[in-house]
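lol ok so funny story. i was supposed to be doing the assay writeup but got distracted and ended up predicting the structure for this chain instead. priorities right. anyway since i did it might as well share w the group, maybe its usefull for someone
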Amino acid sequence: MKNLFLPKKIGLVFFLTFILNTHAQDMKLPYYQIPDYPEDYGPGNVVARMIDALGFRYYWATEGLTQKDLEYTPAEEARTCMQTLEHIHGMSEMILNAADGTPNIREENTVKLSFDELRKKTLENIKSASGKMRGKQAEDFEQSQVIFKNGDNESIFPYWNMINGMLSDCMYHTGQIVLMRRMTGNPKNPNVSVFMGRLRE
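and the output, tada:
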């Protein structure tokens, strides 16, 4: 007699394998929890910690987003959740570039990334930027400039502008993601403690 439940069992195994693989890949991304404290309160370490705080908040703000979440917009003239994520990604590249004074060059034709690619690249940019800033002394910040280049024209700003500009802006927009997903009925994990930088047990 044929086992009528066999196809269902096979389907369940494939489904569970998919879920476990997705979770395992997610765990490999940076900022599942915030890194350990730096050794001291040197200027580079303080900035690195601020960048790490962004990484942790972004990780959990974007964890488990659905297509419905990504398409959501609070108003017709406002950005969708996905467009907001693209904006954060662009600024994460500027945060990374500023760490060693690499110019930001506007590209005419940018490649459209999927949500998973966008999330991964954004988190990797944030992690790399934190690593480059960690341990810097005050005099090192002379090399950490925000540079915009358009053809022969170049605009240079000190790292102060990065702190009150892109870094703060990314925090602001990450909060918008949290709010938008709450509006779609998919709030972020309630066990996330941004104060402790990890999941509550």
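The mean pLDDT is 90. The helical segments are 6-28, 43-62, 67-71, 81-99, 115-133, 159-183.
back to the writeup now i swear
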